Amino acid sequence: MSLEADWFLRAHPEITTIEVLLPDCNGIMRGKWLPRHKLGSIFEGELKLPKTALSLDIWGRDVQELVFASGDADGICRPVEGSLLPTPWSPGGQHGQVMLSMFSDDGSPYMGDPRHVLKQVLSLYQEAGWRPVVAAELEFSLVRWDESQPGHTCPSLPGNSPVGGNTYGLDVLNHHQALLEDLRLACELQDLPFDGVVKESAPSQYEINMHHVDNPVLAAKQIMMMKRLIKGVAGKHGLIASFMPKPFENEAGNGMHVHCSVLDEKGANIFDDGTELGTPLLHNAIGGCLQHMAESVAIFAPSYNAYRRFQPGCHAPTFPSWGYENRTVAVRVPAGSNSARRLEHRVAGADANPYLLFAVLLASMREGILANLSPGKPVTGDGYAKVKKSLPVYMKDAVGLFSESDFIRKALGAELQRIFTLTKEQEIAEFRRRITELEYRSYLEQL
Question: Is residue 158 scored above 50 in pLDDT?
Answer without folding.
Answer: no
